[in-house]
Design goal:
This protein has about 1150 residues and is an alpha+beta fold. Helix content is about 45%, strand content about 15%. It is globular.
């Protein structure tokens, strides 16, 4: 056998060294039908086990998640960098230095770009090396696999599809594989999928039912398996396929013929004997419950045998490594426009310079009166123009700060860290119920998954929120039961249902109904009971808190779920003496709950009577419409009483479910069974076929009772929603609850406030929906005076579907924009996403979606900004979100504090960066008028090169990190501050024009201030007129002082890091000049000492700086006096308090926000 050289032979585990089982198998009628009914379907993916030795190959499961290799790093990195326009722009500027007439050397021109590229390259290399190390660890992992009847140890990278792999407890899988058998007799095993979806709760997986008893090594190697399934894909939540199997009397021989697995090949005893077949052929459906994915860890199960289906890049987790389409900040789009505006400015001064240079060239060299100059044109006009173009293009590229884009990314990263470190957004979560005594509470900090959207938080106008687990605690507790006109208050009297059941006063009819009720509670669910390894107590694990609440509540009535396997449920029921007696029921079929069905059913056969029963629970609107119309089964009075009870539960905010039952006759059950099993093994439209099969039995139900579950609001939810509404934000609640429950939650959470007029959109047809929207618009127009606090619109799920199917989105938006809040009830995950896209695309407003469950992922990813709640419904919402925290109340601080600060800081960083470069380069432009446009630099060459990268890089960065105009306490007290910042207080075109005018004025003041100082000739300490090098020193020092003076004017919040980097940058500027001069790189020796010795320098320095800042200060003072923002008022009030040494909190009252 060709096996990997690293493989070593291993002995089968001791627990598997059992006697070979001689099991006979006879194929029934239904099994043959399963082969025939789906025989003609196309097959997307086929796997045969075992694999012939001739087909064994190495590195079939090799993975590589790195972005680069040694050979591809340089070309791929350069390609990724020069896809950006500004990098191409800077590269062209560097190449322009190669032209002979350029005043800049190629090295000085290229060095800033090289510095930026080097920073990006190091970042990519560090990240990619970490991925490489992780890949090596995964590929080199040792795995046990059966090859040619022998258990070998091979590297994970050498596994291939069809391999039979032995997995031990706590082992992580390296492939996607079908479970053939496990150490548990029923073939069940438990896996942890934290690496895939972040969820730590265990998930049940099951082996192929017909193969569960082949646990021993000697038995499992006798199985030939043929898996037919879907093509590799990235869907982590679904899998469809079927498995055909044949079991031989000895070790299975590889057989890749499809016909080998067909029943007609083994019909006769002779055929079976010749093929040594003792079991099968058989066929079994495959779904997600039979598949263990790469990255899963086997838990609470000693071992399992699995057959590899997908390897390497075909595994689902690897296919999911591609990042979803990135969200782009609105400010980055504006920044791109800003860059284009500056580029136009650059182009204007460039061509003006070239034109004036050409005019000067013609005027000097083609004028005969200049007798001491050569006559005639020494260069062609084209050569002269190109020389000027390249010369000035290289100089003017500095008008766009090359360090800006790096600083923006660094600023966002730091802002994200400040959010994570904010203790006011950290929750101290108490330990879970199964924690050991003395367990400490857990700190749950915020997460910033996508810092590219920090500033968009301050621009949010619409919030779309889930209810359960987002506004509520998602800690479900059963409040009340309803049966046959009686309400049992389980909140006040836990176990009241069980007390009534065991009472001698109830009738036999009532006892039978209560029996159906508790059987549904204890049988129809996905809860897994287990004993906590920490506390030793019985605990329940489920992906649905509602189901856990129901099982725990029925346990209070001494009907305790104690065990669960793939097909059996065990619970205890007290006997006449009160002693718990085990009850075991075999579940024949489990019709699972999903967001479309909104119900779950189980079918079982009663051992005593042999009759088939269906127990069903689900949303009230779904169950009620499936009840039998036979009044003997569902008397009108009973249904009306149940509906009335459901209404009472809903208006107090309880979550309701209906319980129903149906007895199935043999013909109906077998008809369903045939259709369901055929659908299970189908490879085409499996979901539709299974739904059609379920429809055969989930109707004509008998209503048994109802349940009401309480889910309390989280802390400070009403206060948070009230504050957000006062910020001018409109909030849409998207919930699966019924309308009455949603309205009650809206009122208790202040989503519906006193004075608001509630408008309801309930329609049964598409035409009725359109007419109702027109009527609502008319009522809004007529009742403006009555709705003193605005409108709230309440829409049910059916009407919302009519809005989209009838193309009434524009009418819906016309109503929505006039409402402060909108509540959508009974919505599906798809409808949530549709609503978000409707507002985002129709109104072009900034949207934010917040949720906690997997059903909120599409909504979160559709919105401009997605926020996840780290609750109790797994972490899929958190992993898909841009920001995440533990409770809804933190949304207020995220938006009004961190969002506003990020918006203000990044705006200041961008505007200031452009200002300093505009002022810096425009001085060079003015110099052209006095240098005959010869392209001579007004600065020392090294100063131009390092101006952005070293001398002025840190102060604007720290401005973007620490700046704040008002404190967080004032921001959380005054919603008007958020409203004004969103309206453009820190980013608008007037500010941009002001930046340009400021830069032009400061460049004029600096240039002509120095010009007037030295124009008539200033003598140095040796009595000589100062020359070019001293002038370059003058201009370099003055422009740095002026731009730092501007920085001081726009800084409100002075902290020691800001002072430090400002003084450090000044020191670096001075020291660099001295060092460069000392090594003979730039100016002549003695330049800096001569400059510092001149009285003219010290006289001009304060005068020029004052000439620059006084007009700016006057403008700032005038604006704050005549047209102040609310933040200006708060700053003034805060300063007055500080002078009076008042330490009390914010007490500033501002005008209400007009929406």
């Amino acid at each position: 056998m060709d096996s990997p050289t690293t493989a070593t032979t291993a002995q089968p585990p001791a627990q598997h060294q059992q006697k070979q089982k001689k099991l006979q198998f006879k194929m029934g009628r239904s099994d043959r039908r399963g082969f025939r009914r789906n025989e003609g379907e196309p097959v997307g993916w086929e796997v045969f086990t075992p694999v012939p030795p001739a087909l064994h190959e190495k590195r079939a499961n090799f993975i590589s998640t790195t972005k680069y290799s040694v050979l591809t790093f340089i070309p791929l990195f350069l390609y990724s960098q020069f896809r950006r326009f500004y990098n191409i722009y800077f590269l062209l500027g560097a190449l322009s230095a190669l032209y002979p007439s350029s005043a800049l050397s190629p090295m000085s021109q290229i060095s800033p770009l090289l510095a930026v590229l080097l920073f990006a390259a190091l970042k990519d290399l560090i990240e990619d090396y970490a991925r490489y190390r992780s890949d090596c660890e995964a590929n080199e992992k040792i795995t046990q696999v059966v090859r040619d009847g022998v258990l070998l140890e091979v590297k994970a990278q050498d596994l291939m599809k069809g391999d039979l792999v032995f997995v031990k407890k706590n082992e992580k899988l390296s492939v996607d594989a079908i479970i053939m058998a496990s150490s548990l007799e029923d073939g069940t095993c438990f896996v942890e999928t934290a690496e895939l979806d972040g969820e730590t709760n265990l998930k049940r997986r099951s082996a192929i039912p017909a193969l569960t008893h082949y646990q021993a090594f000697e038995d499992i190697i006798r199985v030939n398996l043929h898996v037919q399934c879907e093509q590799p894909n990235e869907n982590l939540l679904s899998f469809e396929g079927r498995a055909k199997y044949v079991v031989s009397s000895g070790a299975a021989l590889p057989d890749r013929r499809r016909s080998f697995f067909e029943p007609h090949k083994h019909d006769t005893e002779a055929a079976r004997a010749s093929n040594h077949v003792v079991d099968g052929p058989g066929v079994a459906p495959l779904s997600m419950t039979n598949l263990i994915l790469r990255g899963s860890v086997l838990r609470n199960t000693e071992s399992a045998w699995v057959s590899v289906v997908y390897t390497g890049a075909d595994t689902k987790i690897i296919r999911n490594l591609k990042k979803p389409p990135g969200k782009e900040s609105r400010m980055m789009k504006w920044l791109n426009l800003l860059v284009m505006g500056i580029f136009i400015y650059n182009a204007v001064i460039l061509f003006v310079s070239c034109g004036l240079e050409y005019a000067q060239y013609v005027g000097v060299y083609q004028t005969p009166s200049w007798w001491y100059l050569p006559k005639g044109n020494t260069d062609s006009l084209a050569t002269n123009f190109l020389g000027a173009l390249f010369s000035y293009f290289g100089m003017y590229t500095y008008v766009i700060p090359i360090s800006l884009f790096v600083m923006v990314e660094m600023d966002r990263l730091v802002q994200g860290l400040l959010m994570v470190w904010d203790t006011k957004m950290t929750l101290l979560r108490p330990p879970p119920p199964d924690a050991p005594p003395g367990a400490e509470a857990e700190l749950v900090p915020m997460r910033a998954n996508n810092t590219n959207l920090n500033e968009d938080l301050a621009a949010v106008e619409y919030i779309f929120s889930d209810k359960t687990g987002t506004l509520t605690q998602n800690e479900m507790r059963l409040s009340q039961w309803y049966l046959n006109g009686i309400i049992y208050d389980d909140m006040k009297h836990p176990g009241s249902f069980g007390d009534a059941l065991r009472s001698d006063t109830i009738s036999d009819e009532m006892r039978n109904r209560m029996t159906l009720f508790y059987r549904t509670m204890v049988l129809c669910h996905g809860v897994i009971p287990s004993i906590s390894e920490i506390s030793g107590r019985l605990i329940y694990e489920s992906q649905s808190p509602d189901e856990t609440a129901l099982v725990e509540a029925i346990a209070n009535s001494k009907i305790v779920l104690t065990g669960r396997s793939k097909s059996k449920v065990t619970f205890t029921l007290p006997d006449a003496k009160g002693q718990p007696q085990p009850q075991v029921y075999e579940v024949l079929h489990s019709l699972e709950f999903n967001s479309d069905r909104k119900r779950m059913s189980v079918i079982l056969k009663e051992p005593e009577t042999g009759r088939y029963h269906l127990y069903c629970k689900g949303a009230d609107n779904i169950i009620l419409e499936r009840l039998s119309r036979d009044l003997r089964m569902n008397p009108t009075a009973e249904i009306d009483a149940a509906v009335d009870a459901l209404h009472k539960f809903s208006v107090v905010g309880l979550r309701t479910l209906c319980i129903a039952h149906r007895e199935l006759d043999d013909d109906l059950y077998h008809d369903f069974k045939d259709a369901y099993e055929a659908a299970e093994t189908s490879l085409e439209d499996r979901d539709l076929k299974m739904t059609a099969a379920c429809e055969k039995v989930e109707h004509d139900l008998t209503l048994v009772g109802c349940t009401a579950i309480e889910d309390r609001l989280q802390d400070e939810v009403p206060e948070t929603i009230d504050f957000l509404l006062r910020c001018g934000i409109k909030l849409w609640l998207l919930t699966g609850d019924k309308q009455e429950t949603a309205i009650n939650i809206g009122q208790s959470s202040k989503l519906i406030q006193p004075g608001m007029m509630v408008m309801k959109l309930n329609s049964k047809t598409v035409l009725e929906c359109g007419a109702a929207l027109d009527d609502i618009l008319r009522q809004m127009e007529e009742n403006k005076a009555l709705a003193t606090n605005g409108y709230t619109l309440v829409v049910d799920g059916l009407s919302l579907g009519h809005v989209f199917s009838g193309n009434f989105q524009e009418k819906m938006l016309a109503v929505g924009v006039q409402c402060h809040s909108v509540i959508c009830c009974r919505v599906t995950p798809l409808q949530k996403s549709q609503v978000v896209n409707m507002v985002k695309d129709g109104l072009k407003k900034m949207t934010l979606a917040i949720g906690d469950g997997a059903n909120d992922v599409s909504m979160i990813m559709s919105a401009h900004v997605g926020v996840g709640i780290m609750g109790r419904e797994g972490t899929q919402a958190v992993r898909s979100s841009d920001f995440a925290f533990a409770e809804f109340r933190f949304l207020k601080r995220l938006l009004v504090v961190h969002g506003r600060w990020s918006y203000m800081r990044l705006s200041n960083l961008i505007f200031y960066s452009f200002y300093k470069n505009l002022a810096f380069i425009t001085i060079q432009f003015w110099f052209g008028f006095y240098s005959l446009w010869c392209g001579q630099l007004i600065y020392e060459e090294f100063f131009m090169t390092w101006f952005n990268v070293f001398f002025t890089a840190l102060p604007p960065l720290f401005l973007g990190v620490f700046e704040q105009d008002v404190s967080d306490a004032n921001l959380e007290a005054c919603p008007q501050l958020f409203y004004q910042s969103r309206a453009g207080q820190y980013w608008n075109w007037k500010l941009f024009v002001g930046v340009i005018l400021d830069a032009i004025w400061h460049s004029l003041a600096v240039f002509f201030g120095i010009y007037m100082t030295v124009a008539d000739g200033v003598l140095d300490t040796q009595g000589r007129a100062i020359g070019y090098w001293v002038n370059t020193f003058f201009f370099g020092n003055l422009v740095v002082l002026v731009v730092f003076a501007k920085l001081s004017m726009v800084t409100y919040h002075w902290v020691w890091p800001t002072w430090f980097v400002l003084l450090l940058s000044l020191a670096v500027t001075c020291i660099a000049a001295i060092v460069i001069e000392a090594i003979g790189y730039g100016s002549v020796i003695g330049t800096y000492s001569e400059a510092y010795s001149l009285p003219a320098f010290w006289l001009a320095l304060p005068l020029i700086v004052a000439a620059c800042v006084i007009p700016t200060l006057a403008w700032m003072y005038g604006r704050r006096t005549l047209a102040p923002y609310d933040s200006d008022i708060i700053i003034e009030k805060t300063q007055e308090k500080r002078k009076l040494k008042i330490t009390a909190g914010p007490d500033i009252e501002l005008a209400a926000v007009e929406q």
